[in-house]
Amino acid sequence: MRTLRTDAEIEALCKALLSPTRLQMLRLIANNRNINLNELAEACNITNGAVTHHMKILEESNLVEQVYSPGIRGSQKNCTLKDYQFVIDILSTNDKTKMYETEIPVGNFTQYKVYPTCGIASINKVIGEIDSPRYFDDPSAREAGILWFTKGFIEYRIPNYLEQNQLLKELQFSFEIGSEAPGICENWPSDIYFSVNDKNIGYWTSPGDFGEKRGLFTPDWWDKHWNSYGLLKLLVINENGTFIDGGKISDVTINDLQISADQTITLRISVPETAANIGGCTIFGKGFGNYNQDIKVRALFSERD
Question: 143: which of 43, 51, 55, 128 is 20 to 30 A away, CA to CA?
């Protein structure tokens, strides 16, 4: 899910969605993985020139991208959907000079301790062996688009771009996440805990391990008996407490974390042995799930007096 805040972003999206032909193209791209321009033109009953024109508008709005892949006669361009759900914030007052944003790849963790069932995979293959935690140390783990474990933790180091005269006011984390059951179980609750700089900031109970439908971006080779998508969650810590999707999960405030410019920031996602529901955790990154994103981070700050 992408949030649109600037006039240019909103206008580009509205322009892209104004045409019934482009809406049809988006649905075809979503339902037919790696469809090419010729196939799109035929399915929409339009010329190749027309489909190229419409694709340019869709690309300008950052809705789709074209990637090269091997074909019968050399390489060909295939179309891939980038996003399909949006939040349009027409009242955004965030000063972009007083925030920074980054995205942490799912495989770019710095610490872990996980227990089977567990595993890690790139968009092309499972890395190493399933249920063998040692492969979380494999160098190719940084290419991961998905990882999962029954209990334990995974920890990420978050870039700290604060200057000495800046005061952190809010931290936001956005990620696609779910439970981890042996196989698939839509009703499989799991208490997933979150910590920043080793301070527990609360937990969220994932309702299940979803796989009865394939994730919109999950690769075709992914086993149909494995979980395929999660739920997109927004974790926010500010001066009023800690929230998941706007619902308060603890009284821990951004001031309690005491994060300064010269301090390391870590985010730990865990399923501890003390949890009431030990149902595991799956984190979906780019190339998997329904949202095609890694762990997005936004930090809002103010100038010190």
Answer: 55
